């Protein structure tokens, strides 16, 4: 393993390149050499920060009242960057508060998801202990989720086209229907079949432009 690390180090040196964690480490060192430039720092999506990025933030603000305000959801981690904030000089004991009211999903979706994740262990945002979805609730209500498996992608796509057709038959407008898939290839197949069925389609990439909001169903990857 160390030979691979040394090889990587030589390649970076020969190319005059570096990595983002190295840039962060250098920034933290430079900040530590002088007075902290900020009195307060607000951090969003804290669950996805790398330890090197936390060191930059800690060095950028002097320890004190309300020095670091952090918001995050450990259940939405997309990177495996778990870290003990206390080990980096960021005190959270007795200073954290959980927001348990969900304004984004319906109660039916929340309850369904919580059952699926009941056996999954999630490390707390602070890096010490675990977090749970117990006690969370939603103010919104809607239909209960339906789960259905298919033997092949082709059968799944055919079922999707039939489902969209059924929703349209219920007088739902095309722009009120959204299809989300993990991979773009799945969306490509869905788009092809839906267009063949005469359904207008709009591919979502980033923010939807205001003038396109009445057009077609939405398809996107999470």
TrEMBL record:
One GO biological process term: recombinational repair
Q: Does the keyword Nucleotide-binding apply?
A: yes
Is Nucleotide-binding among the key words of this record? yes
UvrD-like helicase ATP-binding domain boundaries: 27-82
A Pfam family of the record is UvrD-helicase
Recite the UniProt keywords alphabetically: ATP-binding, Helicase, Hydrolase, Nucleotide-binding
Leader sequence segment: none
GO terms, molecular function: 3'-5' DNA helicase activity; ATP binding; DNA binding; hydrolase activity
Name a GO CC annotation attached to this entry: cytosol
Q: Which domain of life is it from?
A: Bacteria
Q: What protein name is recorded for this chain? A: UvrD/REP helicase N-terminal domain-containing protein
Organism field = Streptomyces griseoaurantiacus
């Amino acid at each position: 393993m160390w030979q691979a690390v040394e090889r990587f180090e030589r390649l970076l040196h020969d190319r005059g390149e570096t990595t983002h964690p190295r840039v962060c480490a250098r920034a933290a060192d430079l900040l530590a050499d002088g007075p902290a430039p900020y009195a307060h720092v607000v951090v969003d999506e804290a669950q996805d920060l790398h330890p090197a990025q936390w060191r930059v933030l800690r060095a950028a603000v002097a320890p004190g009242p309300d020095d670091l305000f952090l918001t995050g959801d450990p259940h939405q981690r997309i990177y495996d960057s778990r870290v003990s904030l206390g080990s980096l000089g960021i005190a959270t004991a007795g200073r954290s508060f959980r927001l348990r009211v969900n304004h984004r999903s319906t109660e039916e979706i929340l309850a369904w998801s919580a059952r699926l994740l009941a056996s999954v262990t999630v490390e707390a945002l602070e890096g010490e202990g675990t977090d749970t979805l117990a006690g969370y609730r939603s103010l919104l209500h809607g239909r209960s989720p339906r789960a259905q498996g298919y033997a092949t992608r082709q059968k799944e796509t055919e079922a999707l086209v039939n489902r969209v057709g059924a929703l349209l038959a219920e007088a739902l407008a095309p722009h009120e229907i959204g299809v989300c898939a993990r991979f773009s290839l799945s969306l490509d197949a869905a788009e092809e079949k839906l267009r063949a069925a005469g359904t207008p389609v709009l591919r979502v990439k980033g923010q939807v432009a205001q003038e396109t909001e009445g057009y077609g169903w939405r398809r996107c990857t999470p």
